[in-house]
Design a protein that fits this description.
- The chain is α+β, with helices and mostly antiparallel strands.
- Helices cover about 25% and strands about 20% of the residues.
- It is built from three helices and four strands.
- The protein is globular, with a radius of gyration of 22 Å.
- It starts with 20 loop residues before the first strand and ends with a helix.
């Protein structure tokens, strides 16, 4: 006769690698006394490892593409936006990254 008892000793849990993905945060760069100026926005490219996204300010908006972030900035801010990629944020004095970001923003 075969014993069909259920074993509850240990469960095997597989750890899946966390996927990193980019998103674009748009926020007002000139907030005074918690009042946005709606003049110029910053668009920052960010890398996220989980479903929780980092908020620099409480009023920032997140977008999956630079094109969507640019459209939002054009509609809601008088002077448009300044775009900063991860490369430029990590190396702000590199003129090559600054030029690439300007071109990428124009083409988005």
């Amino acid at each position: 006769m075969t014993d069909f008892t259920i074993s509850t000793a240990e469960e095997i849990i597989e750890k899946r690698p966390v996927r990193s993905y980019k998103y674009y945060a748009v926020y007002d760069c000139c907030v005074t006394n918690h009042v946005p100026s709606w003049d110029l926005a910053f668009i920052e490219e960010r890398l996220c490892d989980s479903t929780v996204r980092e908020n620099v300010t409480g009023d920032e908006k997140h977008f999956p593409s630079l094109r969507e972030a640019k459209i939002y900035a054009k509609i809601n801010f008088n002077s448009g936006a300044e775009y900063f990629s991860l490369n430029q944020i990590n190396s702000p004095d590199n003129i090559f990254y600054i030029i690439l970001d300007k071109i990428r923003y124009l083409l988005a």
